[in-house]
C-alpha cells in the first residue's frame, strides 16, 4: 500500500526543484490533495472537493466532470447484505452525490406509519398522546409503494390508509401485563368504529358509516393476501397495564416522508464513510513495529517476518480503521504513519427499519434522485 | 509464572473503603432526619414538658376550683367526618384539601360541683386540639412502613417526608438560622466599641444583656434600664463587697486592673437584675454570686478582646449559630396557644363564678376549648406567619409550600436554611463562605442575587441536634471533678492552671485538669453512656471547657483514629456488607462519633487514611459529603469553576422530570413532567444515595461541540428535529382547575346540570359529559365550558323548598377554560370530593404534551443554560464515521469563559460509559477513592472501543457531504429541560383590556396586557425625533380622550349632547370652549388635583 508519492510528502522540495510532470498529470502532492483527505493529529486537511473544472488548467489538467470518465471509474460493490442492514462500497463518485443518496434515504423515501389514533378507551397510566406517539414510531412491515399519499381532504380509503386495532385488557386480580406491538391487529376491512356524527341506523343491513371508506378489503388485494400487514417487530412495549386497566384504540397508518416526521424515515440511519488508507511513511521494524501493533485497537497492522529475526510492520486491514488516531499519537509517530481517506470511495451503510429491504431502499433513492434531476432539466429547458 | 512487578511494588493498600457507611447512614437517617428528629422530640418529650410546666388552672377567686393536666399524648392521624372518626393518610389529605392532623389527648383531673360541694374527677383522653403531623414522623402512619405498604397508602416511597399537609397544600417549616442563645459573644458595635453580649432565653423570658466599654468605662446596657449603668454598680448591687473582690473575680492581671480603673472610680433595681438581667443564669434566694461570676467572665473576656483583637468572636462562625427546626418552632407556638387556651378557660370560669347565682353544676373541663389550638397551628402553618405575642416574635415566611417542580427541588427544600436577619444589608461577612462550614453546610448551594450566601443548605451528612436533658450531665461533670464556685473565692476562679467549665452557656465550675476531664467525657460519649451528640470542646485560648447538649447545633459523623490509625478496619466493613453491622453499631462501638463545629477545633481530621499523621484524631468518611443534595448531582464538580456549581444548584430545581412515583395521582396546581426521563450516564454516589437515578430529571443527549448555522450564538443550542420527533425533551404540563359547588345560607346550593346538546353555546359544551362535567380524555380549548354549573339567584333569604327550586330561579355560573386561543389541553382527571365545609369540590387536571420548540430552555448539569436556537432536520446534521448523529449542537464558545471542565469530562465519561456498558462515576473529589473515574482510564476505554482518546470524532457535514475541517468533540451529556417554556411566556396584543381608572392598557401577560413603552424607550424615540410615533404610542394607542376646555377659565367642561356644544361648568356657558385631545391619565390628574383644592388651569394658545 505504500504509494509512490511518499518522498514528496516527507521532505519539502522547493517548487523550482520539482521534476517536470508530463502534461495531463498533476504533481504528486496536488494529486494527493485532490484525491485524499489527510487526517493529521490536529485536524483533517484537504477535506474539500475540488469542483472547479479549471482548477488545474495552468498545468494542463482538465478537472471537469466527464461522463465517460465517470462511467469508467464508477463501481458499486456490495460487502454485506442482510434483511435490514447492508454495506456497500461506492467508488468513483463525488461526496455531494453520495450525500444526496444519504439525505434522500433519511428524509425523502416514503413509508407507512401510524398517524391518527382513535382512542376509544385508555385507562392505562400512559397518556393518550404519549401512547399515540409511541404507536407512530412503530415501524410497519408494508411496502409503501403500494399506497398513495393521503392529503388533507382525501377520504381514507384502502389505497391510502392501513387500519390497526389494539384492544388489550388486564383482568382484575391478575398481575400487570405488557402491551407489545404484536397486539396491533391489522383490520383489512378498515375502521370498525362508527362515525360519531352518524346516528345509529335502524336498518341493520346497511353498512354503518365508519372512519374509513374502504371499497374493498385490503386482504383481497393480491399484494397483501399472502403477506399480511404487521409491525416489523413484535416485541416493542407500548404500555404496561395494571389490573383492571384497558386500552382500546384504532390506529390509522398513512404514507409520509421522513422530512415531516422521523417516524416515516425508512432507515434507522444511513451513512457513509470514506475508505481509510493507512500509509507507513517509513519502514517500521522490530520494537517499533510491535509498539505500533499494540497501539491500534482494531488491529489494522500486522507483522511480517523479513528474515534474520527481523520484523516489519505492514498495513493489513486499513478498512477497519476507525480513525482513533492512536497510531499517530505522540513521539513523532505522525512522521511514520499517515492516515488518509479516499475522497471518492464511500463505504455506505443502510440500516433499514424493515418496511423495505435496504437494497430496494437504495434503488428507490436512486430513482428519486433521477426524478429530481429530470425535474431540474425540464424546469430549465 | 509471571509476576506482576508493579503489583508487588505497589504500597499495601491500607485505606479501607468507607463509602458503604454512607448508604447505611442515610438508611437510618433518611434525607430529612433533622426535621423528623426535631418533630419527634417535640411530640414525644417537649410537649409533655410544656404541659407539665403549665399543668394547673385555677379560678382566680377560688383556688380550690382547679383543673390539672396529668398527661398528654398525640393520637393517630384522623379526622372527624359527620361525627365519625376516620383515619387519615397524607395522600387523602392532599386530595381532599384537608389538614393532616392528629388529636392531642390529655388526661385531666378537675373539680366539679355546685354550691359548695366539690368532687374531684378524672377524665382520660380529652382532646384539646389537633396537631398537624409531619409526614414520616413517629406520629405519621407512614412511619416505619416499607415500600409496599407505602404504595398502598398512595405514597411515594422515595418521598423524604419532613413536611406537613395543611388544607391540601404541602408546607415545610424551613430551618431557621440564628445566633446562639445564652452564649457570650464578644464583638464591636457600630461605633467600634468592644462589647460582650448575651441573648438570654428561658422558658419565661427573653432578654439581651450587653456590657460595653465606652470611653474607657464599662457599662451595662439592658433594655429595662433606661440608661447605661456602670458595671461596678451592678456588681456591687449584686453583693460584691469590695473593689478588690471584683478585681479578683475578673482576674488579677495588672493589665485588666488598669482597664478597670476608670470604671471603679465612677459610682436599686434588684428584681430586674434578678429576672431580666442575664435571665439564663438561675438565681436562688437572691444569691447573685453565679451572676456575678458570669458578669465577671463577660467583662474579663471583653477586656481580653480589647487587649488582643484575636479574642473577638466571629458572628458568622457556624459554631456560634443554632438552627431552629420545625419541632422547636412548633413547640413555641404550641406553648403560646396552650397558655392562651388556659387563660381563656380561667377567664370564662371567673365569669361564671362572678355570677351571683349559678344554677347548673360547674364543670371546669367544659371550658377547655379545643379549637383555638387547632386553628392557631393550622393558620400558622398555612400562612407561614409566626406571631407569638408572649415572646414578641413576629416572623413571616417561615412555612413555604414544598417545591414540587422536581424531586431534587423537594429534597433540596427540606435542607434549606433561611437566615433571620434582614437580607438587604450590604455586608459581605455573613454571605462569605466560612471555613467552619466545612462538611456541615454545602459550599455550593445558595441562591444568586439578594439572598446569596445568606440562604444555605445542609450538607449530605449533617445532623442537627435536639435538646438533651441537662440535669444528669451537670451532676456527671461534678463527679468528674468539676469544682463548684460555691466553695471558691473569686481569687481562685482564674487560677492559672485551671479551666472554667461552661455547660450550655452556664458556668458550672472549674477544673484543674481539663484535658483529663474532656477525655473522660469523650470516652463516656463513645461508650454510649451519654448522648452521642454532646460536644466537649476545650478552648485553650479562653481557658474554658465548653460542653454543649443543646439543640440546633450542626454536627457530622467522623471516623475515630487513634494516633492516626483508623479504628474502622476491613473486617468492620465486611460485617457491614454482610448485614451484621449497622451504622448505629459503629457508633456504639466507638468507631465513629459525631463532632459539632466547636469540637472539630479540638480534632485533627485527615481527609484520607493515607495522609493521617501521628496526631490525627479523626478521618473523614467521604470527602464528597461536604456537598449537599443539589450539588451532589453535578459530575466532577471539583473540575468546575465554583459559581457554575452554584448556578446548577439553582437550576437543578427547575429541571423537569419525574416528581414522585405517585405523580399521576397528585393534584398539584402545576406539574411539569418529562415523558421519557433517563438516569444520567455519568452518575455520582450522591445521585444513587438520594435515588435521583430513580426519579431523574433529564435525558442523555449526544452533544457535538461545534458551531453550526449561526443560530447558536449566546449559548443557544441547535437541536435535531428527528430526535425531537422520537421523544427527546417531550414534556407534560399538568395544571389544576378547581370549582366549588357552594351551599348557601338558605340551604339552597349550586347545581350542575346536563349540557345542552343543541342550540346556542352547544359548541362550547362539547367536552361535557352528561353529568355536566368535562370528561377525561377530552380536548379542551380556550373558552370551552368545563363545568355546567348554575347558582340560585336568591341565596340569603329563606325560600320555600330549597332543594327543588324551579329552573327559573337559577342563573348560569358556568366556568370557562382560560387558555390562550389556539392552545389546547386535555382533561386528564376529574376528582369530586366534599371539602371541610361540606361543599362539593371538583378538581380538574388538564394536561398538555409539548415537544421542544425554539426558545425552550435547556441546561446541562454545569450551570450552562441555553435556549433552543433552531431546529434542524437530521439530514442536515453532521454524522460520524459510525453513523452517529448528535441530538444537539452546542457552541464551543460556551467553554472558555465558563471553565466548566467537568462538563467535558462528563462527555468523555458518558461516551466511555455507552461504549463499554458501565455507568461511570464522577463524584466530587472522588478520584483518589475510586468514586470518580479518572480521565486517563476513561481515555483508555475510549481508545479500546475505537474512539480517539480525546473524545473528538471525525465528522462529515450533512449538508455538503464532505468531512468537516476539524475533529469534533462529541458524546453524550445529561441535559435537563427547564420549566421555562416559550409557550408560557410569549405574548403580544393589539386591542385589549384597559384599566378602569386610567383607561390605559392593562399590565402583564395574564391580563392580556399591553407592552409598555417605558421611560428609556421613550427617551430613544425623543432622541431620534420620531414625534409622530411617540404621539401614536403614548396617546392614540394608549388612553386618548377628548375633553372640552374653557379658554377663559382653563378648566375642563363637558359636552352637552342635547345642545351639541361643549359647556364649561364653571363659567356656566359654552362660549369659549375648545375641544382637544388629552391622555385620560392627564384628565384624571387634573380632576384629582381639583379634588384637593388645587386648580390646574390649561392655557390654550392658537397653534
Ligand atoms: S487510526 Fe486508530 S484504528 Fe486507524 S490505524 Fe491508527 S490506530 Fe488503528
From TrEMBL, chain A:
Its main location: nucleus. SUPFAM superfamilies: Insert subdomain of RNA polymerase alpha subunit (SSF56553), RBP11-like subunits of RNA polymerase (SSF55257). Coiled coil: none annotated. GO terms for molecular function: DNA binding; DNA-directed RNA polymerase activity; protein dimerization activity. SMART domains: RPOLD. It is found in: Nucleus. GO terms for cellular component: RNA polymerase I complex; RNA polymerase III complex. InterPro entries: DNA-dir_RNA_pol_30-40kDasu_CS, DNA-dir_RNA_pol_insert, DNA-dir_RNA_pol_RpoA/D/Rpb3, RBP11-like, RNAP_Rpo3/Rpb3/RPAC1, RNAPI/III_AC40, RNApol_insert_sf, Rpo3/RPB3_RNA_Pol_subunit. Residues 85-379 form the DNA-directed RNA polymerase RpoA/D/Rpb3-type domain. It comes from the Eukaryota. HAMAP family: RNApol_arch_Rpo3 (MF_00320). Belongs to the archaeal Rpo3/eukaryotic RPB3 RNA polymerase subunit family. PANTHER family: DNA-DIRECTED RNA POLYMERASE, DNA-DIRECTED RNA POLYMERASES I AND III SUBUNIT RPAC1. This is DNA-directed RNA polymerases I and III subunit RPAC1.
TrEMBL record, chain B:
Pfam families: RNA_pol_Rpb2_1 (PF04563), RNA_pol_Rpb2_2 (PF04561), RNA_pol_Rpb2_3 (PF04565), RNA_pol_Rpb2_4 (PF04566), RNA_pol_Rpb2_5 (PF04567), RNA_pol_Rpb2_6 (PF00562), RNA_pol_Rpb2_7 (PF04560). Keywords: DNA-directed RNA polymerase, Metal-binding, Nucleotidyltransferase, Nucleus, Transcription, Transferase, Zinc, Zinc-finger. The keyword Cell wall biogenesis/degradation does not apply. It catalyses: RNA(n) + a ribonucleoside 5'-triphosphate = RNA(n+1) + diphosphate. InterPro entries: DNA-dir_RNA_pol_su2, DNA-dir_RNAP_su2_dom, DNA-dir_RNAP_su2_hyb_sf, RNA_pol_bsu_CS, RNA_pol_bsu_protrusion, RNA_pol_Rpb2_2, RNA_pol_Rpb2_2_sf, RNA_pol_Rpb2_3. It comes from the Eukaryota. The keyword Zinc-finger applies. Belongs to the RNA polymerase beta chain family. It is found in: Nucleus. GO terms for cellular component: RNA polymerase III complex. Its main location: nucleus. This is DNA-directed RNA polymerase subunit beta. Residues 630-1006 form the DNA-directed RNA polymerase subunit 2 hybrid-binding domain. Residues 182-266, 273-324, 400-464, 501-561, 583-615, 1009-1099 form the RNA polymerase Rpb2 domain. It is an enzyme of class 2 (transferase). One of its GO terms (molecular function) is DNA binding. PANTHER family: DNA-DIRECTED RNA POLYMERASE I SUBUNIT 2 (PTHR20856). DNA-dependent RNA polymerase catalyzes the transcription of DNA into RNA using the four ribonucleoside triphosphates as substrates. Residues 30-358 form the RNA polymerase beta subunit protrusion domain. It comes from Erythranthe guttata. GO terms for biological process: DNA-templated transcription; megagametogenesis. Its EC number is 2.7.7.6.
Amino acid at each position: 500500500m505504500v504509494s509512490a508519492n511518499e518522498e514528496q510528502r516527507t521532505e519539502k522540495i522547493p517548487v523550482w526543484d520539482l521534476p517536470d510532470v508530463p502534461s495531463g498529470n498533476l504533481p504528486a502532492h496536488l494529486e494527493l490533495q485532490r484525491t485524499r483527505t489527510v487526517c493529521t493529529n490536529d485536524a483533517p486537511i484537504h477535506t474539500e472537493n475540488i469542483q472547479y473544472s479549471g482548477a488545474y488548467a495552468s498545468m494542463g489538467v482538465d478537472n471537469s466532470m466527464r461522463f465517460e470518465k465517470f462511467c469508467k471509474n464508477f463501481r458499486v460493490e456490495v460487502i454485506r447484505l442482510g434483511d435490514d442492514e447492508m454495506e456497500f462500497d461506492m467508488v468513483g463518485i463525488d461526496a455531494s452525490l453520495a450525500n444526496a443518496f444519504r439525505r434522500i434515504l433519511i428524509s425523502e423515501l416514503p413509508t407507512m406509519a401510524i398517524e391518527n389514533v382513535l382512542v376509544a378507551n385508555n385507562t392505562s397510566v400512559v397518556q393518550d398522546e404519549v401512547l399515540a406517539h409511541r404507536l407512530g414510531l412503530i415501524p410497519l412491515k408494508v411496502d409503501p409503494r403500494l399506497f398513495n399519499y393521503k392529503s388533507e381532504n382525501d377520504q381514507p380509503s384502502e389505497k391510502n390508509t392501513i387500519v390497526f386495532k389494539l384492544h388489550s385488557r388486564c383482568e382484575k386480580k391478575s398481575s400487570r401485563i405488557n402491551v407489545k406491538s404484536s397486539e396491533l391487529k391489522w383490520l383489512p376491512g378498515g375502521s370498525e368504529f362508527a362515525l360519531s356524527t352518524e346516528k345509529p341506523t335502524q336498518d341493520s343491513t346497511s353498512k354503518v358509516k365508519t372512519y374509513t371508506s374502504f371499497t374493498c378489503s385490503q386482504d383481497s388485494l393480491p399484494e397483501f393476501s399472502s403477506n399480511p400487514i404487521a409491525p416489523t417487530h413484535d416485541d416493542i412495549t407500548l404500555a404496561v397495564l395494571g389490573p383492571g386497566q384497558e386500552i382500546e384504540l384504532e390506529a390509522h397508518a398513512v404514507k409520509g416522508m421522513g422530512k415531516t416526521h422521523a417516524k416515516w424515515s425508512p432507515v434507522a440511519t444511513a451513512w457513509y464513510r470514506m475508505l481509510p488508507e493507512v500509509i507507513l511513511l517509513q519502514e517500521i521494524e522490530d520494537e517499533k513495529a510491535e509498539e505500533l501493533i499494540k497501539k491500534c485497537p482494531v488491529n489494522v497492522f500486522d507483522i511480517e517476518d523479513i528474515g534474520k529475526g527481523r520484523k516489519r510492520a505492514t498495513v493489513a486491514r486499513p478498512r477497519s480503521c476507525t480513525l482513533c488516531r492512536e497510531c499517530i499519537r505522540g513521539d513523532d509517530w505522525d512522521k511514520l504513519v499517515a492516515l488518509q481517506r479516499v475522497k471518492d470511495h464511500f463505504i455506505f451503510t443502510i440500516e433499514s427499519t424493515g418496511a423495505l429491504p435496504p437494497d430496494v431502499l437504495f434503488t428507490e433513492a436512486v430513482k428519486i434522485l433521477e426524478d429530481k434531476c429530470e425535474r431540474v432539466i425540464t424546469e430549465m429547458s | 509464572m509471571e509476576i506482576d512487578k508493579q503489583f508487588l511494588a505497589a504500597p499495601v493498600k491500607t485505606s479501607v473503603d468507607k463509602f458503604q457507611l454512607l448508604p447505611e447512614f442515610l438508611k437510618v437517617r433518611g434525607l430529612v432526619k433533622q426535621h423528623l428528629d426535631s418533630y419527634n422530640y417535640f411530640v414525644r418529650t417537649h410537649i409533655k414538658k410544656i404541659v407539665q410546666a403549665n399543668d394547673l388552672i385555677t379560678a382566680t377567686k377560688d383556688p380550690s376550683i382547679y383543673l390539672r393536666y396529668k398527661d398528654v399524648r398525640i393520637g393517630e392521624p384522623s379526622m372527624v367526618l359527620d361525627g365519625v372518626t376516620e383515619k387519615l393518610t397524607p395522600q387523602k389529605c392532599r386530595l381532599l384539601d384537608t389538614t393532616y392532623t392528629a388529636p392531642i389527648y390529655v388526661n385531666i383531673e378537675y373539680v366539679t360541683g355546685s354550691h359548695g360541694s366539690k368532687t374531684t374527677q378524672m377524665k382520660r383522653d380529652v382532646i384539646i386540639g389537633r396537631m398537624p403531623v409531619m409526614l414520616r414522623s413517629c406520629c405519621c402512619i407512614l412511619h416505619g412502613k416499607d415500600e409496599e405498604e407505602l404504595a398502598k397508602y398512595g405514597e411515594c416511597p422515595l418521598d423524604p417526608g419532613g413536611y406537613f399537609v395543611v388544607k391540601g397544600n404541602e408546607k415545610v417549616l424551613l430551618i431557621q438560622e440564628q445566633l446562639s442563645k445564652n452564649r457570650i459573644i464578644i464583638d464591636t458595635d457600630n461605633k467600634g466599641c468592644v462589647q460582650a453580649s448575651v441573648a438570654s432565653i428561658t422558658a419565661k423570658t427573653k432578654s439581651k444583656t450587653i456590657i460595653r466599654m465606652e470611653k474607657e468605662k464599662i457599662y451595662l446596657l439592658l433594655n429595662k434600664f433606661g440608661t447605661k449603668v456602670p458595671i461596678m454598680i451592678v456588681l456591687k448591687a449584686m453583693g460584691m463587697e469590695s473593689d478588690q473582690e471584683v478585681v479578683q473575680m475578673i482576674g488579677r492581671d495588672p493589665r485588666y486592673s488598669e482597664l478597670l480603673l476608670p470604671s471603679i472610680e465612677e459610682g436599686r433595681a434588684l428584681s430586674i437584675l434578678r429576672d431580666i438581667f442575664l435571665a439564663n443564669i438561675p438565681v436562688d434566694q437572691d444569691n447573685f454570686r453565679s451572676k456575678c461570676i458570669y458578669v465577671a467572665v463577660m467583662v474579663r473576656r471583653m477586656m481580653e478582646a480589647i487587649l488582643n483583637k484575636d479574642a473577638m468572636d466571629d458572628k458568622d462562625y457556624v459554631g456560634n449559630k443554632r438552627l431552629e427546626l420545625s419541632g422547636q418552632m412548633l413547640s413555641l407556638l404550641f406553648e403560646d396557644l396552650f397558655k392562651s387556651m388556659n387563660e381563656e378557660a380561667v377567664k370564662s370560669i371567673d365569669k361564671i363564678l362572678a355570677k351571683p347565682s349559678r344554677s347548673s353544676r360547674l364543670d371546669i373541663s367544659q371550658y377547655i376549648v379545643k379549637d383555638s389550638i387547632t386553628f392557631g397551628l393550622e393558620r400558622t402553618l398555612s400562612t407561614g406567619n409566626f406571631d407569638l405575642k408572649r415572646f414578641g416574635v413576629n416572623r413571616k415566611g417561615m412555612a413555604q409550600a414544598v417545591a414540587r417542580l422536581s424531586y431534587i427541588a423537594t429534597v433540596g427544600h427540606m435542607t434549606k436554611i433561611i437566615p433571620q436577619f434582614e437580607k438587604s444589608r450590604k455586608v459581605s461577612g455573613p454571605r462569605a463562605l466560612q471555613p467552619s462550614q466545612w462538611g456541615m453546610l454545602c459550599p455550593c448551594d445558595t441562591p444568586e442575587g439578594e439572598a446569596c450566601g445568606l440562604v444555605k443548605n445542609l450538607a449530605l451528612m449533617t445532623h442537627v441536634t435536639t435538646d438533651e436533658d441537662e440535669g444528669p450531665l451537670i451532676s456527671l461533670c461534678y463527679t468528674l471533678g468539676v469544682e463548684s464556685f460555691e466553695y471558691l473565692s473569686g481569687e481562685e476562679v482564674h487560677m492559672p492552671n485551671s479551666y472554667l467549665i461552661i455547660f450550655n452557656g452556664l458556668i458550672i465550675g472549674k477544673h484543674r485538669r481539663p484535658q483529663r476531664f474532656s477525655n473522660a467525657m469523650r470516652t463516656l460519649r463513645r461508650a454510649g453512656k451519654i448522648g452521642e451528640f454532646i460536644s466537649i470542646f476545650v478552648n485553650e485560648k479562653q481557658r474554658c471547657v465548653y460542653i454543649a447538649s443543646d439543640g440546633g447545633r450542626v454536627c457530622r459523623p467522623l471516623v475515630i483514629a487513634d494516633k492516626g490509625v483508623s479504628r474502622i478496619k476491613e473486617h468492620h466493613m465486611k460485617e457491614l456488607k454482610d448485614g451484621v453491622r449497622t451504622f448505629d453499631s459503629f457508633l456504639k462501638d466507638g468507631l465513629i462519633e459525631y463532632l459539632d463545629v466547636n469540637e472539630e477545633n479540638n480534632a485533627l481530621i485527615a481527609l484520607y487514611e493515607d495522609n493521617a499523621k501521628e496526631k490525627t484524631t479523626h478521618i473523614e468518611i467521604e470527602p464528597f459529603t461536604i456537598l449537599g443534595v443539589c450539588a451532589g448531582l453535578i459530575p466532577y464538580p471539583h473540575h468546575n469553576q465554583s459559581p457554575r456549581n452554584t448556578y446548577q444548584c439553582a437550576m437543578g430545581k427547575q429541571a423537569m422530570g419525574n416528581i414522585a412515583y405517585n405523580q399521576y395521582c397528585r393534584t398539584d396546581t402545576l406539574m411539569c413532567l418529562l415523558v421519557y426521563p433517563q438516569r444520567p450516564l455519568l452518575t455520582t454516589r450522591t445521585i444513587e444515595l438520594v435515588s435521583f437515578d430513580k426519579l431523574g430529571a433529564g435525558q442523555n443527549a449526544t452533544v457535538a461541540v461545534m458551531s453550526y448555522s449561526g443560530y447558536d450564538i449566546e449559548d443557544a443550542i441547535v437541536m435535531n428535529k428527528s430526535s425531537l420527533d422520537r421523544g427527546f425533551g417531550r414534556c407534560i404540563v399538568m395544571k389544576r382547575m378547581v370549582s366549588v359547588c357552594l351551599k348557601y345560607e338558605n340551604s339552597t346550593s349550586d347545581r350542575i346540570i346536563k349540557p345542552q346538546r343543541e342550540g346556542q353555546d352547544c359548541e362550547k359544551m362539547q367536552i361535557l359529559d352528561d353529568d355536566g362535567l368535562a370528561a377525561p380524555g377530552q380536548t379542551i380549548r380556550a373558552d370551552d365550558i368545563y363545568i355546567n354549573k348554575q347558582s340560585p339567584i336568591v341565596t340569603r333569604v329563606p325560600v320555600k323548598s330549597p332543594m327543588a327550586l324551579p329552573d327559573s330561579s337559577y342563573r348560569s355560573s358556568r366556568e370557562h377554560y382560560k387558555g390562550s386561543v389556539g392552545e389546547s389541553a386535555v382533561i386528564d382527571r376529574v376528582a369530586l370530593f366534599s371539602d371541610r365545609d361540606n361543599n362539593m369540590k371538583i378538581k380538574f387536571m388538564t394536561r398538555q404534551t409539548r415537544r421542544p420548540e425554539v426558545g425552550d430552555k435547556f441546561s446541562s448539569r454545569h450551570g450552562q443554560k441555553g435556549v433552543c436556537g433552531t431546529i434542524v432536520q437530521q439530514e442536515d446534521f453532521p454524522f460520524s464515521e459510525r453513523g452517529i448523529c448528535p441530538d444537539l449542537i452546542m457552541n464551543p464558545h460556551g467553554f472558555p469563559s465558563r471553565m466548566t471542565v467537568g462538563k467535558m469530562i462528563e462527555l468523555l465519561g458518558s461516551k466511555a460509559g455507552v461504549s463499554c456498558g458501565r455507568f461511570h462515576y464522577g463524584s466530587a473529589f472522588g478520584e483518589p477513592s475510586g468514586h470518580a473515574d479518572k480521565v486517563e482510564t476513561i481515555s483508555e476505554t475510549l481508545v479500546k472501543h475505537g474512539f480517539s482518546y480525546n473524545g473528538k470524532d471525525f465528522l462529515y457535514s450533512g449538508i455538503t457531504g464532505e468531512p468537516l475541517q476539524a475533529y469534533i468533540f462529541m458524546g453524550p451529556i445529561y441535559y435537563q429541560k427547564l420549566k421555562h417554556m416559550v409557550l408560557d411566556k410569549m405574548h403580544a396584543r393589539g386591542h385589549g383590556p384597559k384599566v378602569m381608572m386610567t383607561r390605559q392598557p392593562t399590565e402583564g401577560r395574564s391580563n392580556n396586557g399591553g407592552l409598555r413603552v417605558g421611560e428609556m424607550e421613550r427617551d430613544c424615540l425623543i432622541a431620534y425625533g420620531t414625534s409622530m410615533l411617540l404621539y401614536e404610542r403614548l396617546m392614540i394607542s394608549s388612553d386618548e380622550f377628548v375633553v372640552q376646555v374653557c379658554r377663559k377659565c382653563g378648566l375642563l367642561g363637558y359636552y352637552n349632547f342635547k345642545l351639541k356644544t361643549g359647556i364649561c361648568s364653571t363659567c356656566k356657558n359654552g362660549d369659549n370652549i375648545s375641544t382637544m385631545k388629552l391622555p385620560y391619565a392627564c384628565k384624571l390628574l387634573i380632576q384629582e388635583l381639583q379634588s384637593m383644592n388645587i386648580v390646574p388651569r390649561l392655557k390654550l394658545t392658537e397653534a
